[in-house]
Amino acid sequence: MIKDITLGQYFPGSSVLHRLDPRMKIVLLIIYITALFLTHSALSYFFMALVTLSLILLSRVPFKLYIKGLKPLFVIILFTAVLNMFYSSGNLICEWWIFRITDEGIANALRMILRIMLLVISSSVLTYTTSPLMLTGGLERLLSPLKVIKVPVHEFSMMMTIALRFIPTLMEETDKIMSAQKARGVDFEEKGIVKKAKAVIPVIIPLFVSSFRRADELAVAMQCRCYSGDNKNRTRLIQYNLSAKDYISLVVVCCITVGSILLNYVLIFGF
Fold it and tell me: What is the bridge-based pairing of β-strands 99-102 and 92-96?
């Protein structure tokens, strides 16, 4: 399960999505998520699924990585689907005790499953095609107008950079600790909540110790390099410039959003 967590991982490449400006990619993701929440009909969901599949192909990232990223969320997706299935109004199909299954409940469950999957995959497209440094740099530039009202934009971006950078490291550290504990006879597959909780304790404590040690080492390294936060005279290694392909992608995503909304009102076979 630990190895299936792909959050924060970057897949180097030279695809069209890799070459887009990180600021534009963040804006495009926000527009895409908005379109996804405005989607209601089956036809519009099918359209958004095709768009997401096209993004996967354009990213040139192996499809198995996207599926791998969905595995840790299987329980959440299943739980959300069950709630929507049993507690929705509509024409009753069957009923048992306090559980009622309706046609609208099944439709809502399917919509929710597809929506969560598309949200996760689209977010993965952004992280797979954008390095953490580029991502946080673009976010800082997008939020720079908030500096006028004294919002610590640079500090927020720096925290995000550090978090994304060390997520894969912590996952690897967790896997090593679990392997070491298994070699010492710890069984992580035991049944029962209490036994599983006891088995997790030997992993959490060393992981916390390792995390605090890494944080201390990082703080010392930043002090040795005279890091002083958001300095107005600080120069930037990477300069962001929007190009024609960024504006074309913005137009395309806006058209996709309008198309998904219009498809909500298209009738097929009277439905």
Answer: antiparallel
> What is the rounded distance in angstroms from the CA atom of residue 50 to the CA atom of residue 58?
12
State pTM to two decimals.
Answer: 0.76
Distance CA 246, CA 82 (A): 40
If asked whether residues 264 and 168 sit together in one domain, one would say no
Q: How far apart are CA 115 and CA 113, in angstroms?
A: 6
Q: What is the pLDDT of residue 192?
A: 64
Q: Do 135 and 61 share a structural domain?
A: yes
CA dist 258 and 253 (Å) reads 9
- Specify the range with the lowest mean pLDDT, choosing from 2-6, 81-85, 174-178: 2-6
5 and 90: one domain? yes
DSSP of 187-207? -TT-SSHHHHHHHHHHHHHHH
Helix (H), strand (E) at residue 234: none
- Whether 188 shows a pLDDT value over 60: the answer reads yes
Q: Cα–Cα distance between 143 and 132 in angstroms, integer?
A: 16
